Amino acid sequence: MSFIISALNVLSTAVLVIGLIFVFLGMLGLLRLPDVYNRLHATTKVATLGAFGVMASIVLNVGFTPIGIKAITVGLFLLLTAPIASHMIGRAARRHGVELCAESVIDEYIIAGETD
Amino acid sequence: MKRYLYYSIPLGIMWCFVHGTVSIQNFLFGLLLGPVVIRPFRELYDFDQELSFKREVRKIPKQIIYFLVLIMEITKASIMVSKIVISPKIDIKPGIIAVPLRTRTNGGITAIANTITLTPGTLTIDVADDRSVLYVHSIDASYPESIRMSIRDDLERFVLEAFE
Amino acid sequence: MNLLIFSLTFMVLAIIPCIYRIVKGPTIPDRVVAMDAMNTVIVVMLGVYSFVQGSVFFMDVALVLSILSFVGTVTISKYLDEGVVL
Questions:
Q1: pLDDT in tens, A42-60
Q2: Is C42's Cβ below 8 Å from some Cβ in A?
Q3: Assuming Cys at both sites, which of A101, B109, C8, C29 could form a disulfide with A35, CB separation 3.0 to 4.6 Å?
């Protein structure tokens, strides 16, 4: 029995470190990528997965106590709302007139009401 | 009255999760608070649609499969974007692609847009006014046709099974 | 305690690019993205702190902060898009 508990502890520490590394890589992407849309790729996917990993490691360690259940709630909420927030920011940026970066190869977007 | 009870069940479960202890008293208390939340936001629920409890319950296993597939896809997507971020010289070909849609319902379009955002290299920007086209930003847009094919064949099938 | 110090140091290092992007960012959407990302990092810090201290209250703070971050992001985006909030 104690073997299972120590294995769970090791697993949860590993998931915690992996999640922290993913959050850090997401912020590094925010620093390095060239324009708003590519930065959204980094923060939406990588940082959200990192936060979900940290919350999952807390659940693996403490089980279904109040801390664990609230950690599940926070993780699911982040996973559900990150795509919606990124969709809103991307649409606002495109209509606000933010241009794509210089490396872009294709742009098929048509703003409603604008004749081309 | 029955409709209020039916829409209150998810709110009761959510109350249990926010409170921190899952028990039958908490669920009943959340169920009691549900109509207070639903009544002011009545326009957001479609009250004229007929409800069938059995059909919603039958969709739950498909939705669990969809959630597991989503976790797998988001892990792959994160590893791909992380590789781009830590490479010493950033070499990407981004672009915005128009992807035609088959479904027209609100729930289907929302689920497809969220799924596209969480899969490798793509991000939804906007929906056209007549709901026939999604505009997708891709981090590697050198082959637009293959991205359209993969969205239509792989993703849309799972989402339509789970939410239609 | 060792784990706590390691995690908090790592997350403070992760906040530095966000602050750079908020101050320097060429356009307003850049700043909104950086604010959203910084809120995610702070939620992670609060979660780790709550777990190590064994206290539930910091997890409540994390939940409320993630809700407020989502609402704020959507509000600013809608203002940029249409010029009105409601």
A1: 888 888 889 999 999 999 8
A2: no
A3: A101
